[in-house]
Amino acid sequence: MKRMYSLIAAAFMLVVFTSARGQSLWSLQKCIDYALQNNIQIKQQALNSEYYNNQLGQAKFNRLPNLNAGFQNNMSFGRTIGPDNIYLDINSNSTSGSLNSNVTIWNGFTLTNSIKMADMDLRASLEEMKKAKDDIMLNIAASYLEILFADELVVVAEDLLKITQLQIDRTTKLVEAGSLAKGSLLEIEAQYAREELNVVNAQNRLQLAYLALYQLLEVPSTESFKIEKPTLPEIGANLSLLNSMDVFRNAVQLKPAVKGAEFKLESARKQLLIAKGGLMPTLSFGGNYYNFYNNKYTDRYGNKLLFDSQFKTNERYGFGASLNIPIFNRYQAKTGVKNAQIQLENTELQLQNTKNLLRKDIEQSYTNALAAFKRYIANQKTVVSSKEAFRYTEEKFNVGMINSVEYNQSKNNLSKAQSDLLQAKYEYIFRTKILDFYNGQAIEL
């Protein structure tokens, strides 16, 4: 069994070493920069913002007059009434053309409010893109710290394995000298096999953590990398956390999730004004021009009228204003106003819900950070005492005062204390980074 686990561990380390050769080192900032340029969700949000930018441009263009041209060609065959009220067989070809233009002068400020609403929609989409970037940065930081945590677990597991190997060497000599029973050696060898498996599991966790980061960045497996190991801040008993309510007050002013919800609320208000504008009269001004040509037209002398002559005599044009007063439209306008009011109230609730979720996230991060800090301080003492207890147990085991079961239990206690300390450490770092981020600071390690 021992040989099998040794072969597994050796094979795994060979794969890891081979794959790591030639790989570049990526810092946290490099991971974030890569994601901001390549993440699909961020690209989709950018396209969404481009769409709303086009909507804003169109809302502004709607203030301009329109201009439309029309052309028509008709061919006529068969009998028709001639100039002397006599039916004649006449085949004719006529061509006509027109130009029409119209501009809205006033329509209950609908055009103005449409521009303002489109502007709010654009700003909201830009904030949503910022929020997508914030989310990806937080996820990358969490994945990055998970790799660092998993890497330290590997070191702890390997260090414990080395200690057990040294103990096997000592126990073998004692058994050969007749100082210890062979059962003690077998127990230590069994513990070694279990710890080899722990090393493999820790290495698997590390590889899975890397895989999660690769997938988050959408990096192909053929372009894998290793992360840089930054110098993490020291955690001491004199550290103090930012007050959660102070962080929340700053986050409400800074975070794009809240700003985006506020812009959506303003957009809903403009939508209500647009709906109310549907109840008001509309005043517009327009003009038109019309001309036509027929190849059978003649003057009073029977001479065929040429195109340029008809172009001068057949033209028609005019200008006019139009006032449209809504009286009854099957309650469509009133229903639109009611629906816009409902949407406005719903958007107000969405803004409040966004603030509530932000407050809950901050309070949870604060509570988790405080708990992790307390666990870290407690686990520091536990690790110190566990190391001392294991040292004392090891000495007694070497002279045969205790059996291998007690020795292994003490060693397992030390391993658990070290793992708990690491978990509390990285939990605290991550939660404090979240609080700093909500407080307007960049995510750095």
Q: Keywords for this structure?
A:
445 residues; two-stranded parallel sheet; disordered N terminus; four-stranded antiparallel sheet; alpha+beta; 8 strands; Outer membrane efflux proteins (OEP); single chain
Overview of this structure, please?
- The protein has 445 residues and is an alpha+beta fold.
- The protein has one domain (2-38, 107-281, 325-438): Up-down Bundle (Outer membrane efflux proteins (OEP)).
- 67% of the residues lie in helices and 13% in strands.
- The protein has a 4-stranded antiparallel β-sheet, with helices on one face.
- A hairpin with a 5-residue loop joins strand 3 and strand 4.
- Helix 3 packs antiparallel against helix 4.
- 26% of the residues are buried.
- Residues 1-21 have low confidence and may be disordered.
| Discrete helix count | 10
Average pLDDT: 86
- What does the main sheet amount to? 4 strands, antiparallel
Instruction: Please indicate the percent range of residues in DSSP E strands (runs of 2 or more).
Output: 5-15%
Number of domains: 1
Name of the CATH first level: Mainly Alpha
Kindly identify the CATH topology. Answer: Outer membrane efflux proteins (OEP)
